[in-house]
Amino acid sequence: MTTPRPSLTLSSTVLDAPDAAELAGFYRRLLGWQPVQEEPDWVKLLPPGGGPGLSFQTAKPYVPPVWPAALGDQLMMLHLDFEVTDLETAVAHAVAEGATPAEFQPQHDVRVLFDPAGHPFCLFVTDQVPGEPPAISPEWVAEQTREIAEQDRVTVQDAVAPDPSDPAAPARQKEPDTLA
Asked: pTM to 2 decimals?
């Protein structure tokens, strides 16, 4: 017998930061969203038209991710994508509010930036239907793969499941045979 699925509504995506109020201030200026909840270590912003918001919590041991990651780097757990109509104007606005452009830019119609706490986020434009991902040519993928390989970068798969024959790979714990 299966349990009925309860009603679930995404309320917010939560980002850790050394200072929740400071990071919330950056996204408030960037997006024009207003705070609906402010506590010493927690701030929640909502978009003016409704929908899921962004929340920020103070986490003193927060370590910013490295992008693109190399073996042993702190991996990002998620990133935010913002579709824009004018990429250069959006990047200039983000930088004016405190963002830093990433050195490595993966596509001509995407800009990766870091917020003041070091979370990567993307600004992108598309000539396609809004919300549709831009087309990526096989040539571009091959070129990016070569560039990443030359930088000794690893894929997420390598970072999550490193090659056990590699002497630099961390030891993996044995999976339990049964769940108790």
From this structure: 0.69
